[in-house]
């Protein structure tokens, strides 16, 4: 299913996919219409814009992943904002593409989503990693040293605090989901807390301390 409030763009995208023998079962021009048609057609994958009337693409993404989790959703947007990307990742998106993406990358993203894998453009992920490192460099060094967290663990801590799933963290940092879980166990030990929820609470307090 394709979701975008620009009809000309929808028509072009539909034609492109059909030339690659990908069936388009429905199109929608708003978030609310997408919700209705998702219930009726339950497509394998939804390609959806972020900036739309009524419900935004991110709002629609959250609702669909909560209520029809088997549907894979790829955000296709003109926005390359890191904040939008992180929100999409934490809400369960299977991919994030800008509208100047070439056809090969689009098809690759669809193939990945269909197999249950994730696809985020290397350029965008490089940007995210750069910002994470910059954020980590600004973290209070005393806290860093006292808690004995490695740079990798601080990166994972930053992403976990934003609600990003382990699988997506693995893709972001170029490591396996199993490795992310291993680092989380070490983080829990180092912070002397009981579980992931307390790790997140610690990360939020850490972020607030940087702003005061």
Descriptive keywords:
212 residues, alpha/beta, Rossmann fold, Arc Repressor Mutant, subunit A, 5-stranded parallel sheet
Please give a structural write-up.
The structure is a single chain. With 212 residues, this protein is an alpha/beta fold. The protein has two domains: 2-118, Rossmann fold, CATH 3.40.50; 125-211, Winged helix-like DNA-binding domain superfamily/Winged helix DNA-binding domain (Arc Repressor Mutant, subunit A). Helix content is 61%, strand content 8%. A five-stranded parallel beta sheet has the order 2-1-3-4-5, sandwiched between helices. The protein is elongated, with a radius of gyration of 19 Å. Mean pLDDT is 82; it is low at 138-146.
Topology:
Blueprint (H helix, E strand, L loop, with lengths): L1 E2 L3 H13 L7 E2 L2 H11 L3 E4 L8 H11 L4 E6 L4 H9 L4 E4 L4 H13 L6 H16 L3 H7 L3 H11 L4 H8 L3 H15 L4 H16 L1
Parallel strand pairs: 1-2, 1-3, 3-4, 4-5
Major sheet details: 5 strands, parallel
Helix content: 55-70%
Q: Which topology of the largest domain does CATH recognise?
A: Rossmann fold
Tell me the count of domains. Answer: 2
Q: Note the total helix count.
A: 11
Element string (H = helix, E = strand): EHEHEHEHEHHHHHHH
Low-confidence stretches: 138-146
Radius of gyration: 19 Å
Could you give the count of β-strands? 5
CATH homologous superfamily grouping of the largest domain: Response regulator
In percent, how much strand structure appears in the residues?
5-15%
Helix/sheet category:
alpha/beta
Assign the CATH class of the largest domain: Alpha Beta
Average pLDDT level: 82
């Amino acid at each position: 299913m394709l979701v975008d409030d620009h009809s000309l763009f929808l028509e072009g995208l539909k034609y492109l996919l059909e030339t690659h023998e990908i069936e388009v079962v429905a199109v929608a021009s708003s978030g609310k219409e997408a919700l209705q048609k998702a219930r009726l057609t339950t497509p394998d994958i939804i390609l959806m814009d972020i900036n739309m009337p009524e419900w935004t693409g991110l709002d629609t993404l959250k609702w669909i992943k909560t209520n029809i989790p088997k549907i894979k959703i790829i955000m296709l947007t003109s926005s390359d904002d890191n904040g939008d990307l992180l929100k999409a990742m934490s809400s369960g998106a299977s991919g994030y593409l800008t509208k100047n993406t070439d056809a090969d990358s689009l098809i690759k993203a669809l193939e990945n989503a269909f197999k249950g894998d994730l696809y985020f453009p290397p350029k965008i992920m490089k940007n995210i990693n750069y910002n994470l490192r910059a954020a980590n460099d600004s973290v209070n060094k005393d806290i860093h040293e006292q808690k004995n967290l490695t740079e990798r663990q601080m990166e994972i801590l930053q992403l976990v605090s934003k609600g990003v799933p382990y699988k997506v963290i693995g893709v972001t940092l170029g490591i396996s989901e199993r490795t992310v879980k291993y680092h989380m166990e070490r983080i829990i030990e180092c912070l002397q807390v009981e579980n992931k929820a307390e790790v997140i609470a610690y990360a939020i307090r850490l972020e607030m301390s940087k702003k005061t």
